Q: What sequence folds into this?
């Protein structure tokens, strides 16, 4: 190991380049693994605990019998109501519609989960509580459960604990409001457990329906052509989750459960049910997608290993004379292998450390750029991307794999050192030997193949997500903070308008706030999005008798919205506060809307019928275009990809919010320190009324544009993978061509002395590079073609029919390779023929 360390120290440039190249491959794979692990592997692992099964359907009295007489083979059992315990969760200044589950006291034993703070739901929590308490959720009123709810206590998730309470242990014992009912927090679930659930509430006690209630559920209307007996109404059933003892067969457990409940006589409304055993598992689709992403990231690692192998192979070739001398002086081939392998091991170990540091920095930057990663609509995930033992182990394992693969090459190389041939060579040959050239070419071709696969995959991803990224925001969202407010039912229009006016006055006094306004949506925003409808904008009949009808969107806004968005009116005036209920209805239109409705005319003073109302509104101002649609097909031709493809700015109309009261509004602030004004914004709402829910207070990019930001993050990651692979491949082409030129410098000098032109020498070198690139291009395109068929079957929304990626990527790879080869080609053309002849 000491000899290997001294050998690498004598060539610091070689060691630095080798370590950096492999570190990029290891660091990129480690960062991707951290993301996939957080989004797919950890949730699936938590949801797929060993020996945990769902049992359904279970009659209510049968479940009570099973709990009282738990059969052998059942370690623990609990009744669950998935996503039945959620609703509106609220603390002063913060609110959210959360997902929750109701569980009985045995849930923690089934899951073998222990809270990180406080305790879990127990049997005492499931006793008592409100009987059939009605709950209104988003305008729908109905009973929470048929029975008793149990105590008003909950266990909150790790995400809620960290986001809402800053991971303060004193959160246990605090009172929150759940569905307008005071509820006490008794525990915090461990991190990574059931990440799709925000809270757990008591299951309570379920009851059977009375005969009158059963009769009300009887079906009286049947589809036309119905034949057969009328179905009898049945009693509600439960879903149970149990953990069986290891080694006990499912059929045995099922038989014992049925034996315990067999004593109950069946009835029409409560027949003997055929209990089904279903293994609980995580989201297989997410796990499969995670493996696909890791597979693509592994291509960069393969390319980096191939590049390192090529560098070490060239280094060993240059040292064949040294190795032959070592063998002649008594060294064994095993010692030669140890020397070569030790060098590879040192490089891989250093690359693992550098790669882990690189991954840590990348993950930190990713967390800062995308604090709320949104997997699905209305499902944001706070990513914990800190380096833990899993991520560290992955980086170390990647280094070990690289050392093993490259070490195998070192063993092969050390076995081919010819003692007599190397000692007999008195000088370098005029024409370089072709020994090892095939292997070096294949290693570079592996890098080219990996780059082609990744670039084609990236191109298809960019094409397939183009329609979801079809809105471009034309104003600065990075300095904006937004929060959604929903006034409770006790607010009428007068009181609600007064509250919003007071709130605007308060938030404009917050330090750092430069502008503030109320609106029901932001232009091109997602949650909520601007209102719209077919034929929603109709101009007044012009002097020529023409009426223009447009499909457009409208936004209710208070005075100052344009200033908050960082814009000013293009013509006319902004809303000035004189627009109140009962005054003449007015609007502002965007520049694009004005151009479409009144081309070549002054829109100020024109009238328009819009926004679902039958009366006309007067245009008082023209706002700049703030959003632009870029509708493109999923599959693009080369011409379409090179063209603009845009449909122009959005058709938007702005209506005074004071003339149309809404209890749900979005407060928008502009500040040079946006994160610093989030808490003062919450405090301003609490100071006016602590009962007002505040939803999604935070930077606009993380709330109103969260889904777009997440998709942009995916596109950024895919593009980075493709560029890194391209860079490694181009560097590999440059390195192998440079080595080719250095080994054949005398030959090039002789060719020049015999009459060859410098252009012919450049052509010879570039032709060699093209040969290498084509050897990698052909399998890369072939594998990509086969792979897209598989992905199209697995991912139904993938459309790999566009020509862009299939044409642009090979051309890009070929051009980049030729450029990389041209530099050593010019060096070969500048070889001095006189010096080459002198050295013969």
A:
């Amino acid at each position: 190991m000491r000899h290997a360390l001294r050998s690498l120290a004598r060539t610091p440039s070689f060691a630095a380049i080798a370590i950096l190249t492999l570190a990029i491959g290891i660091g990129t794979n480690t960062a991707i693994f951290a993301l996939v692990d957080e989004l797919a592997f950890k949730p699936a692992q938590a949801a797929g605990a060993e020996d945990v099964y769902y049992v359904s359907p279970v009659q209510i009295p049968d479940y009570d019998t099973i709990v009282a007489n738990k059969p052998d083979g059942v370690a623990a059992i609990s009744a669950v109501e998935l996503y039945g315990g959620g609703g509106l969760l609220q603390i002063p200044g913060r609110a959210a519609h959360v997902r929750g589950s109701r569980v009985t006291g045995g849930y923690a034993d089934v899951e073998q989960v222990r809270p990180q703070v406080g305790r879990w739901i127990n049997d005492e929590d499931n006793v008592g509580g409100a009987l059939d308490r009605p709950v209104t959720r988003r305008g729908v009123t109905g009973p929470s459960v048929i029975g008793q709810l149990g105590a008003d206590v909950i266990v909150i998730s790790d995400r809620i604990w960290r986001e809402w309470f800053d991971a303060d242990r004193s959160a246990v014992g605090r009172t929150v409001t759940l569905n307008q009912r005071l509820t006490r927090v008794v525990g915090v679930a461990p991190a990574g457990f059931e990440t799709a659930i925000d809270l757990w509430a008591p299951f309570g006690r379920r009851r059977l329906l009375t005969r009158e209630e059963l009769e009300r559920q009887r079906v009286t209307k049947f589809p036309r052509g119905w034949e057969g007996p009328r179905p009898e109404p049945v009693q509600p059933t439960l879903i149970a989750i149990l953990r069986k003892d290891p080694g006990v067969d499912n059929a045995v457990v099922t038989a014992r459960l049925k034996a315990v409940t067999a004593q109950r006589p069946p009835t029409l409304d409560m027949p003997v049910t055929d209990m089904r055993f279903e293994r609980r598992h995580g989201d297989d689709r997410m796990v499969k997608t995670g493996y696909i992403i890791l597979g693509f990231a592994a291509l960069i690692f393969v390319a980096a290993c191939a590049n390192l192998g090529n560098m070490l192979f060239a280094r060993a070739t240059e040292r064949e004379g040294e190795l032959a001398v070592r063998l002649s002086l008594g060294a064994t081939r095993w010692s030669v292998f140890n020397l070569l392998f030790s060098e590879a091991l040192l490089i891989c170990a250093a690359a693992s450390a550098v790669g882990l540091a690189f991954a840590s920095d990348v993950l930190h930057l990713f967390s800062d750029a995308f604090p709320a990663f949104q997997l699905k609509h209305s499902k944001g995930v706070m990513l914990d991307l800190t380096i833990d033992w899993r991520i560290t182990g992955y980086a170390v394992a990647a280094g070990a794999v690289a050392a093993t693969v490259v070490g195998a090459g070192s063993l092969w190389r050390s076995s081919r050192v010819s003692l007599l041939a190397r000692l007999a060579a008195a000088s370098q040959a005029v024409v370089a030997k072709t020994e090892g050239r095939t292997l070096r070419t294949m290693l570079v071709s592996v890098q080219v193949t990996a780059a082609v696969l990744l670039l084609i995959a990236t191109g298809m991803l960019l094409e397939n997500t183009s329609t979801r990224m079809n809105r471009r925001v034309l104003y600065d969202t990075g300095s904006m903070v937004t929060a959604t407010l929903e006034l409770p039912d006790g607010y009428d229009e007068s009181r609600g308008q007064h509250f919003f006016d007071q709130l605007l006055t308060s938030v404009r006094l917050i330090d750092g706030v430069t502008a503030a306004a109320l609106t029901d949506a932001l232009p091109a925003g997602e949650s909520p999005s601007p209102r719209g409808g077919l034929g929603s904008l109709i101009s007044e009949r012009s002097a020529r008798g023409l009426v223009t009808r447009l499909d457009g969107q409208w936004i209710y806004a208070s005075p100052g919205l344009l200033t908050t968005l960082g814009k000013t009116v293009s013509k006319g005036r902004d809303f000035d506060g004189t627009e109140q209920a009962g005054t003449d209805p007015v609007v502002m239109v965007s520049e694009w809307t004005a151009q479409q409705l009144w081309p070549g005319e002054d829109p100020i003073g024109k009238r328009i019928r819009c926004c679902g109302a039958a009366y006309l509104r007067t245009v008082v101002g023209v706002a700049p275009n703030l959003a632009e649609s870029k509708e493109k097909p999923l599959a693009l031709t080369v011409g379409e990809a090179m063209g603009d493809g845009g449909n122009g700015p959005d058709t938007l109309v702005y209506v005074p919010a004071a003339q149309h009261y809404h209890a749900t509004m979005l407060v928008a602030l502009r500040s040079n320190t946006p994160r610093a004004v989030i808490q003062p914004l919450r405090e301003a709402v609490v100071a006016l009324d602590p009962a007002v829910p505040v939803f999604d207070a935070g930077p606009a990019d993380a709330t109103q544009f969260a889904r777009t930001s997440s998709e942009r993050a995916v596109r950024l990651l895919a593009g980075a993978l493709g560029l890194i692979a391209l860079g490694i491949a181009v560097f590999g082409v440059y390195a192998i061509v440079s080595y080719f030129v250095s080994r054949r410098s005398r030959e090039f000098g002789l060719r020049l002395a015999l009459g060859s032109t410098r252009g012919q020498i450049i052509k010879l070198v570039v032709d060699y590079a093209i040969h290498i690139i084509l050897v990698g291009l052909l399998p890369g395109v072939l594998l990509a073609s086969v792979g897209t068929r598989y992905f199209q079957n697995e991912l139904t929304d993938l459309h790999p029919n566009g020509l862009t990626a299939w044409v642009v990527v090979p051309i890009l790879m070929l051009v980049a390779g030729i450029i990389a080869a041209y530099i050593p080609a010019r060096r070969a053309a500048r070889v001095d023929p006189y010096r080459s002849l002198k050295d013969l």
Notes: Confidence is low (pLDDT under 50) at residues 419-435, 631-646. The first strand starts at residue 52 and ends at 59.
